[in-house]
Amino acid sequence: MNGNSIRIGASAKWTMGALALATASVSYASSNTLVGGGSTLPVIAYAGDSINNPVYPAGVGSVFGVFSAQAGNPSVSYCKTSDAIALNVLTGSPGFNVQDACPANGFGAGTVGRADLTQPNYVVLGSPLNASDYLDYQNSHPAGDYPVEFPAIAGAIAIAFNLTDSLGNQVTSSEVNFTDGQICSIFSGQVTNWSDPRLTSAFTLTDGASIPANPINVQYRSDGNGTSFSFSSHLATVCGTINNEVFETSRGFTSVVANFFPLGLPPNWVGSSSDATLIQGIGSTSGSIGYVETANALATIPSPQLADVNGKSPLINFGNPLTITAVSLLYNEVISNVNNANGTAAVETIGAIPGVTNPPTTQCIALVKPSLYAKPAVPGGIVPSTSYPIVAISYLLANSEGNTSTDLMAIRGLLTAPYTSSITSQVTTVGPGTGLAFLTLGSNAFTTNQIRGCLVN
């Protein structure tokens, strides 16, 4: 939006969105490739996977791939990076631009013929916006502009491991079932050796085999990412206080466990800047364990062993749609920069954040309460007792303003694709056996019409 533009009021924007929906079919004719990217956590759901290419067109069977395959819809370019970099591109932080190379500082728009873009068409995050993100966006955009955010797809965060038993056999997924308590003990550093009696019940091995007395080598994500956010939210919720300390919910894993390691992490705890490198680290390091997005683990060759947790598999017991309702949602609220006293994520109203001016009044920034998916069977929660327990929610984001007239209808279609049955019915990258699940819009949740009305020129 430039200085000569006329700002459209919220009610007018809503009316325009409703009219657009009424006149639009499934296709949104545009020859321009839509450019975006972000989190590796749900990348396979949205765009499929291309291990060797950070910028690539959405693949066959993925949400964006099916969208593009429908008549009249444009192709979609996805930059596979991290929440941290994607947020910098979205918010317009200094040194980051949609035109810059992916995955370093941008989404590589020029490489797919979109040298005209000054902002991404969409962004994917594995965690919701926080207060700092919103301030960064406000400070680099015209007054009154805001990021649009809606939850779209859930993913199971698996506990991956690489173990050899005393007989020299690879310990497999079917032989390992961790309890929450055992995971809490490992990632807080209370248990440091695989032969610790506190882990004995996790293993069902071949007769005569045992787990050798070797150190536990922990692999973790070193970048800011949604996998760490949701994993830490689960730990903070289920672990409680351990030796007078708690896990902190954060996108940065070193912050998650800082209370337990005031002098820094042990030398055999190794950080990786992506799911792919973390999975490779587990595969190449005997006696290692880490947390990974399940679908990305399955796409890596060779794929790691994935443990059951509390008797539930991230594959067999995850993949059915999770229902969100009005009770599940908050509008115009973000994750606070300060956690609750027990380390769980706190939320705050955007208008209450110091430094925020002209907070949005439309319902275009939607947040699923982290407490409602931090563990199964929470009253009002979205994760049933029969589900695998460690769950992440990914978000689709865009810009409320500044969308080019040639892209606008297509962006509206892309953001509503995960809730459009003609698209989701053709998607093969989400569902049972994938580690990924759609979100079903239940009673009084947001609508696709609502999403469309949030996006204008």
TrEMBL record:
Coiled coil: none annotated. Gene3D superfamilies: Periplasmic binding protein-like II (3.40.190.10). Residues 148-311 form the PBP domain. It comes from the Bacteria. Keywords: Signal. Residues 1-29 form the signal peptide. Belongs to the PstS family. This is PBP domain-containing protein. It comes from Dyella nitratireducens. The lineage of its organism: Bacteria, Pseudomonadati, Pseudomonadota, Gammaproteobacteria, Lysobacterales.
